[in-house]
Design goal:
Blueprint lengths: L2 H6 L8 H17 L4 H28 L1 E5 L5 E6 L9
């Protein structure tokens, strides 16, 4: 997405993940139903891209904060380590 388009959607940067996702789902629904004209489709598609990028940034930030619990030989907690980046299960 170009910088000008991102500036047009400056309100997105303050949205929670849940609010941005809800709006993105509404946009997808409108586009799938085809009940908007071409110009509006382009505009809401661009907003959808900005919302998707915002959600992606928020998810990556949350992922960076997630840690997995490490256990000792006796099963008691010994500390934490960063969550595996390869998408594997943290347990």
């Amino acid at each position: 997405m170009n910088t000008k388009a991102a500036e047009n959607f400056a309100d997105i940067k303050d949205m929670t993940f849940e609010r941005a996702l809800k709006e993105l789902e509404a946009i997808v629904g409108k586009l799938e139903r085809g009940d908007v004209d071409l110009e509006e489709s382009i505009t809401i598609y661009e907003r959808g891209e900005a919302l998707r990028d915002h959600c992606d940034r928020l998810l990556k930030a949350a992922e960076a904060k997630v840690e997995k619990l490490t256990l000792g030989a006796d099963g008691s907690p010994t500390g934490t380590t960063p969550l595996d980046k390869d998408g594997g299960t943290p347990f």
